[in-house]
Amino acid sequence: MTSALVLAHGAGGSVRANFSPLIPVLSRTRKVFWVDYPGSGSTPRAGGPLSLDDLADRVVASAGDTPTFAVLGYSLGCAVAVRAAVRHPERVTGLVLTSGFVRADDETRARTARWRQLLAAGDRKELARYQLSLVVGEPFERAMPAEQREGMLELIALTVPPGTDDQIDLVERVDVSGDVGRVAVPTLVIGTKHDRLISPASTRALADAIPGARWAELDSGHAPSLEAPTEWIRLIEEFLG
């Protein structure tokens, strides 16, 4: 498999927020490329609804003239990665998909609806508490010292990307059921055992829908970069290697 890797982040995040512990390690042995979606990082917010095709094309374009590469997708980034593989089969040589889904189920839709309500209300403290309950697993949250929890809540409240609502809207509209059967590259799908945003069953359904996909699972919630970065890196490197 090619040594280059492109990163596709999740909704309401950024590449640095979702992959920061991974980037230095993965970059030791391969070129790593990325771009933030509209409204995240330094990328300006879009003027209208986001398109999965557009995000897939942006992610592929971030690799510049590197001819082939694998794509590491996380959460919404899994759908972006799948669409990239289907739209650019001559360039995408492999997929690693973590905490992904074919389409949002009713539980996820209820959670994203509440997320958007809190965004609209503008209470950053309440929004941060809700986001924390979504992104970390219950065992991890229960074990967090009070000081760490308060620090994380403050960080979340201060770093909400301006394009979060646009990206959540896309999560609610995503449906890659017509794409998954057309994926023709080696694929590893990684579930997150204690995920409270995307159910592990939804991620398993994504794996089952991709021909020949391998399956692995992390003992974490929706934020493996926080809860299980070492094991996440190990799974990625073993697959790409």
From TrEMBL:
Q: What GO terms are given for molecular function? A: catalytic activity
InterPro entries per the UniProt record, alphabetical: AB_hydrolase_1 (IPR000073), AB_hydrolase_fold (IPR029058)
Which residues constitute the signal peptide according to the record? none
Positions of the AB hydrolase-1 domain: 4-229
Question: What is the protein's given name?
Answer: Pimeloyl-ACP methyl ester carboxylesterase
Q: Which organism is it from?
A: Saccharothrix variisporea
